[in-house]
Amino acid sequence: MEQILLSPSERGIVVFRVWPALRYGTRAVAAVALVIGGLAWQVAAMSFWPGILMVTAGNILLLVRGYNNDVDLGRYKASNEWRPATLDKIRQVQKLDLKMKTWDRSVLDISNRLGCLAFGLVLVVLAITLEFGRQTGSQAPMLVGINAAVLLLPHWVTGTRSILTRPKLMLKIDAFLRLYEGVKDEVAEDKLQFSLLLEGKGTREIPSDIRFRYVPKGAAEGFLGLQGQMAVNEVQGKSHLYFYVVAVAERGYGLTKRLGQWKAPEGLVLEASDNGQVEVVVLRQKTTKNSGYSTDETRIRSIFHSGLLLAKRVALIGS
Q1: Which of 7, 73, 263, 279 is most buried, judged by most C-beta within 10 A?
Q2: What is the pLDDT of residues 116-142, one digit of tens each?
Q3: Degrees to nearest 5, angle at CA 283 with 280 and 284
Q4: Does the pTM exceed 0.70?
Q5: CA–CA separation, 13 vs 96, rounded Å?
Q6: Reading across the β-sheet that carries 206-215, which strands appear in turn?
């Protein structure tokens, strides 16, 4: 019955098992009416039938199938591609992840410790109630026990709150938002656009990665931008962010020529390549076999600022 108490913000997120398109208000009224009507019928008749059927029907309307963690990023077909995303949309993904984690730790979910303990306690109480009714020959404890079982147990058995979480994506989003808050004034006159990589089929999409694209004001034609990306390295069970930037230009633009004698700051390395379609220059933290695969917040900002200098040099000289 916990689903009746959903907040307005949760009502569009939780997906019900039966008749998912039914409006929440209608569902709640119908479920409550069926349950109360069924209980009243049983009490009046001091018999399970047919009131227990009404209680069961009302409860079925409240069974949850899962959590809708799709993010509405516009009307287009999802095809595992990068799409521009506003800061509001990115924060929406962040908030949704927090809601999912809170919702997943429900007492009516046997997949977490709290839910497992509650399930065991309920079973014990129900068993004691039913046994008391059997030994005393009293109908009231039997009615209470059977109805409690019908109303509560299905939510543990069928409502396991399995959710799709993206811990690596959340790490990246948190880091990118902190970076943006620290540099937004510096790039206010330039273009800095975030994008999300979407996975999905048809019209449903789920974000799986994030990056940004920076283009300085007055950039030469052919310069496609400076991309900021993050990888997540797993070391001994811990996740470490590795941030790097990539200058991209059309083939024939001359990235390395425009770069000239510019050198990467100490601790960073430059790597140029041409795949036949675009020219690329990567600016990243130097790594060894045993170190360098993690960039802390201070280092991320340092690499970002070095990337800005790189982008302005190759995009503005000779434009």
Answers
A1: 279
A2: 787 788 888 888 988 888 888 888 888
A3: 130
A4: no
A5: 9
A6: 82-85, 191-199, 206-215, 223-235, 238-250, 278-285, 268-274
Sequence-distant (≥ 6) Cβ neighbours of residue 184 within 8 angstroms: 192
Residue type for position 42: Q
Closest CA to 310 of 286, 280, 273: 280
Tokens found for residue 23: 């409006």
d(CA 153, CA 122): 8
Contact partners, residue 50, CB within 8 Å, separation at least 6 = 41
Q: What is the DSSP letter of 169?
A: H
pLDDT for 318 beyond 70: no
154-165, pLDDT tens digit by residue?
Answer: 877 665 554 445
Is residue 223 left, alpha or beta, with left meaning phi > 0 and alpha meaning psi from -120 to 50?
A: beta
Cβ neighbours of residue 310 under 8 Å, at least 6 residues apart? 226, 245, 247, 259, 262, 281, 283
Least confident of 36-50, 111-125, 187-201: 111-125
Q: Give the span between the Cα atoms of 150 and 53, in whole angstroms.
A: 10
* Percentage of the chain lying above the pLDDT 90 cut: 41
Tokens of 213: 């694209």
Residue-wise over 175-211: b if at least 16 C-beta within 10 A, else e?
A: bbbebbeebeeebeebebebbbbbeeeeeebbbebbb
Q: From CA 51, how far away is CA 37, in angstroms rounded?
A: 7
Give the Cβ contact number of residue 261 at 10 Å: 4
